[in-house]
Amino acid sequence: MKQLRNLSIVLALFVCANASAVEAGDSAPAFRAFDFDGQAVEFPRSDTGATSVVIFWATWCGYCKAFMPKLEQIEADYRSRGVQVVAINAKEDGSGNPAQYIADLQFPMTAVRSGNGIARAWNVEFIPGVFVVDSNGVVAFRRPWTDLPAGEAVADLWDRQVRRALDTALE
Fold first, then answer.
1. What is the edge-to-edge ordering of all strands in the sheet holding 31-35?
2. CB 114 within 8 A of CB 98
């Protein structure tokens, strides 16, 4: 009986912890942060009404390294439709140089430094956290869990999923 009670408590905590997850259909949490040049960044920007791809990344993340080239192509393919990329550095371990990482990518995006608080507000547990947020500030897509290893296969999967969500959000 005690084990059943303990299991019930654990399940209740699990449900409560996941109840705050930002999922498709939820309003995207707003934030104010700073980019790598010290300029203020606000999200969502009410003056643009843009659909956004939001990615939480870290320099040590093999999945991020595999997906970022795909994200660069997504940005290029959807730029004319007003899509913006917002890259938020989070969960850094101190082994890399996030500013250099972003500079090396060389494609148009808003890049936020020190985004651990934002990652908590969005309930990002695993890097990369990938979201599509429509022009009304509503989450249209949140990257689901995968057991695929970092590499081309998972990058291709996320590329297809993000493009599908963007196409739907832009209809």
1. 40-43, 31-35, 110-113, 84-89, 52-57, 129-133, 139-142
2. no
Helix locations, the chain, DSSP H: 2-19, 62-78, 98-105, 116-121, 152-169
Q: Under CATH, to which class is 22-169 assigned? A: alpha beta
Residue burial 81-108, b: 16+ Cβ < 10 Å; e: rest: eebbbbbbbbbbeeeeebeebbeebebe
Cα–Cα distance measured from residue 166 to residue 77, given in angstroms and rounded to the nearest whole number? 11
Spell out the per-residue pLDDT of the chain, length 171, in tens.
444 344 333 333 333 344 467 999 999 999 999 999 999 999 987 666 799 999 999 999 999 999 999 999 999 999 999 999 999 999 999 899 999 999 999 988 999 999 999 999 999 999 999 999 999 999 999 999 888 888 899 999 999 999 999 999 999
CB atoms within 10 A of CB 132: 28
What is the residue extent of each domain of the chain?
22-169
